[in-house]
Amino acid sequence: MNQALSRRSFVGALLAAPQIAKQNPLDMRIEQVATSEESYLYRTPIKFGGTVVDRVTLLNVKVQVRNRSGKTAEGFGSMPLGNVWSYPSKAMAYNQTLDAMKSLAARIRRITADCREFAHPVELNYMLEPAWLKAANEVNAELKPADPLPKLAVLVTGSPFDAALHDAYGKLYGKSVYHCYTREYLWEDLGRYLGNEFKGDHLERYVLKDPKPRMPLYHLVGAVDPITQDDVQKPVGDGLPETLPQWIDYNGLTHLKIKLNGDNLDWDRDRVLAVDRAATETMTRRGTKQWFYSLDFNEKCPNVGYLLGMLRQVKEKSPSGFDRIQYVEQPTARDLKTHRQNVMHQASKLRPVVIDESLTDLENLKLAREMGYTGAALKACKGQAQALLMAAAAQKWKMFLCVQDLTCPGASLIHSAGLAAHVPGVAAIEANSRQYCPVANKEWESKFPGIFVIKNGFMQTGVLTGPGLSAV
Prior knowledge:
CATH architecture of the largest domain: Alpha-Beta Barrel
């Protein structure tokens, strides 16, 4: 695809979007866009959605912007290209789905660089996303992959570009970008993005200007992670914890996210019970009075009956363990329209059931509510603008909110932590890279020790007050 085609794709999408009637003097324009990549091997593999992952490729984006008065700034965004999660395929190898996302990233870079509109970053994303989705169709037409690029993979690929724009905007005005979601900076109300129900509502109502001082950390217990010493088949031997009790002691943990397989009810039940036994013994020894679990099936349950049966058996065998379950994440297939029979009304009476993989736009959030979901998992990897808009809609509809990780290291973890710390109602934060990819965090630990070094079970999110997204 040549640059002219990229430009036509963008202009076509731009013309299709509702235009802004007035010109805000604080708007910015994109001047340059550059990308780079980093790749890392995990210290230990992680299994989710039936697939074991042992590596990550980060997509880094730098943008240069200027405002109407000519002032310039540079923004930075970074995000794992989580192809196994966002682009699952039984017909394609890991490198094939990753290469398709890389090809899309090259097109997104050109489309974004071609944008010459002055706007707020939320507005820029609203204009650009249709062109990014159209570019995915062009990749599919050119590469003819066995499985076409899904929308979730497009959001993940576009997210570091979106992050870089928000980062640049905050730096343009020398403040945290979370101070730049007020009506002074973003004139348009939420009706523009979320429909008539939100007319007159503004984003500032749903976003905290200043971060929560600290947040409990949700530690991931992966499906192949050892729980006790008896489970350790081949020690990593790098000085970091190897078992769940060791991690609890090391970080003072009180929140545990348990990955489940969704294809063997007995195994899933026993996994929860094993975690509960190890956690109870360790927490009791430490004098911890209260702790929590979340359950993540990564959409692998065949139906809601499987989930209800598993929860019932956990409650029968460990009532206290069941009581510690805070919420259940995406139990069944992500394609809600195709699987309308997978309603969650009964399950949501037991615990909040949140969508994750399904949450790609407002339409799916509405559909999820109709199907009985009572919560939404926000993710920085779906884009800062989208995450904020979905957070606003979910708050208005009184849904349970959490912010989930994509094993984000470095700047992407700061981005994710900042999102969690600025959305009301989000009570805890997930940060898996310290377990699986600590090498990618090394240079960041001294700059943001409260984010990358966890003590007493908390991340010190109050430090995220720097300009932009606070990363660099």
